[in-house]
Amino acid sequence: MRKVLVVLVSLAMLFSVVPVAMGAFEDMPKATHWAYDNFMLLYNAGLLKGYPDGTFKGERYATRYEMVELTARILKYLESQMYGSATLPENGGRVALTEAQAKELIRRALEEEQVATAADIDAIYDALWELEYELRNELDARSDVNVSLLANRVAALETKVEEQGARLDAVEKQTKSNKTIGIVALILGVAGIVFGFVPAN
């Protein structure tokens, strides 16, 4: 879990929109820094671009806009790794990756580094899903992001809500039926007492 947290913190702190002309950042962490391995993983994957002055400014917090750009960049990176596993939409829209598809793309992306366990991949997927969910309005407004991790989960949740609604309707109907039977039984009981329809012993 710490590795995933480090990756997310590194993503948040090490991001910029403008690419650096040089091969490395002037202020990149040293090899002994706790975030170095994750920094290099993200840098080598092309997800860290830095600022025009050749720095990545890892000591400052990322803005919401930077996080939108980073999340979009990660989703576009996953899209580029799809190898025809999903058809991109014509005229806009987004392809919904299943959880298994997204995790396989993450696994492939981290395969060369051989650092990610199944638990790490699960945690990275969950963290990326949370980021996309939090930034969904901004990401939906972009025309360059063609994949989504949200749509399948949302569709599954909507299906569960519909199923629960159908169950609730059935329970309400049964409750009304039970109330009706109870009222009829009460009326018959009162009528029996009033008119003397009492069973003999």
UniProtKB/TrEMBL annotation:
Keyword annotations from UniProtKB, A to Z: Membrane, Signal, Transmembrane, Transmembrane helix
Domain SLH residues, every copy: 22-85
PROSITE patterns per record: SLH
Keyword field contains Transmembrane helix: yes
InterPro entries hit by this protein: Cell_Envelope_Struct_Comp (IPR051465), SLH_dom (IPR001119)
Transmembrane segments: 181-200
UniProt xrefs under Pfam families: SLH (PF00395)
Segment forming the signal sequence: 1-23
Designated name of the protein: S-layer homology domain-containing protein
